[in-house]
């Protein structure tokens, strides 16, 4: 058998070991010719499936954001981003996830060897790239500089989000009310306003809320008006 030198996992074929090693090196050599997204495999589970997004008819439509899917199963998983449902639970730390795939990746935190250790806090990582980024939290290094205000950031992703404060770019739009956001995560949270049940109602104006805390803060607005 062929053994991984990092995590000691074994494989029957050298080709399978080669593909597996990319999970440690983060190498993604296969690029989609349409959107330039990269993948670590070209076969059935990665690039090949992704290409269907650009070519195959997607007849199942989300009633909230109008995004289309290849089958009802994928639509069902997607709906959880609107409802907040996380039915897959980690048996070790009890954290919940949208689907079994994300849970499977998470479980590696508890089981897979992390050979690259931080000399500062002893936290361990799967690959040297993640360790390098983490080390910046100790060294204070922020190599990505904003060309407008000269503020520095730990990684290119944080710089990209920051640049939107200068450009005013808000590329993520709610398909229901057309409100825009600068991050997809903020849009995801916002969409729950349109889909999740809001059982707590204001007795004054009938506006509804997700929890009692939000209702309590809202009621203060009415109380303040009465005291003016």
Task: Write up this protein.
It holds the Pfam family zf-C2H2. The protein is an alpha+beta fold and 228 residues long. Among the domains are: 1-54, Classic Zinc Finger (Double Stranded RNA Binding Domain, 2-Layer Sandwich), CATH 3.30.160.60; 144-194, Classic Zinc Finger (Double Stranded RNA Binding Domain, 2-Layer Sandwich), CATH 3.30.160.60; 197-228, Double Stranded RNA Binding Domain. Helix content is 43%, strand content 14%. The protein has helices at 14-25, 47-55, 72-83, 100-111, 128-139, 156-167, 184-195, 212-227; strands at 2-3, 10-11, 30-31, 38-39, 60-61, 68-69, 88-89, 96-97, 116-117, 124-125, 144-145, 152-153, 172-173, 180-181, 200-201, 208-209. The strands form 8 sheets. It has a two-stranded antiparallel sheet. The chain has a two-stranded antiparallel ribbon with strand order 3-4. A hairpin with a 6-residue loop joins strand 9 (116-117) and strand 10 (124-125). It is globular.
Provide tags for this entry:
single chain, 228 residues, alpha+beta, Double Stranded RNA Binding Domain, two-stranded antiparallel ribbon, 8 helices, 16 strands, metal-binding, DNA-binding transcription factor activity, RNA polymerase II-specific
Topology:
Layout: E1 2-3, E2 10-11, H1 14-25, E3 30-31, E4 38-39, H2 47-55, E5 60-61, E6 68-69, H3 72-83, E7 88-89, E8 96-97, H4 100-111, E9 116-117, E10 124-125, H5 128-139, E11 144-145, E12 152-153, H6 156-167, E13 172-173, E14 180-181, H7 184-195, E15 200-201, E16 208-209, H8 212-227
Antiparallel strand pairs: 1-2, 3-4, 5-6, 7-8, 9-10, 11-12, 13-14, 15-16
């Amino acid at each position: 058998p062929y053994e991984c030198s990092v995590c000691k996992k074994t494989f029957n074929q050298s080709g399978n070991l080669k593909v597996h090693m990319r999970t440690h090196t983060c190498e993604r050599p296969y690029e989609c010719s349409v959107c330039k997204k990269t993948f670590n495999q070209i076969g059935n589970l990665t690039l090949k499936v992704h290409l269907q997004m650009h070519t195959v008819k997607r007849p199942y439509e989300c009633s909230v954001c109008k995004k289309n899917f290849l089958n009802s199963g994928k639509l069902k998983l997607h709906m959880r981003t609107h409802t907040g449902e996380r039915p897959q639970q980690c048996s070790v730390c009890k954290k919940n996830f949208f689907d079994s795939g994300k849970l499977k990746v998470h479980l590696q935190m508890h089981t897979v060897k992390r050979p690259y250790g931080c000399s500062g806090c002893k936290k361990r990582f799967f690959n040297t790239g993640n360790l390098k980024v983490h080390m910046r939290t100790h060294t204070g290094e922020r190599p990505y500089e904003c060309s407008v205000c000269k503020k520095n950031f730990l990684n290119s992703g944080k710089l990209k989000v920051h640049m939107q404060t200068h450009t005013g770019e808000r590329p993520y739009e709610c398909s229901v009310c057309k409100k825009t956001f600068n991050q997809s995560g903020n849009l995801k949270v916002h969409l729950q306003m349109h889909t999740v049940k809001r059982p707590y109602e204001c007795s004054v104006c009938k506006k509804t809320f997700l929890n009692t805390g939000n209702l309590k803060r809202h009621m203060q607005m009415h109380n303040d008006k009465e005291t003016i």
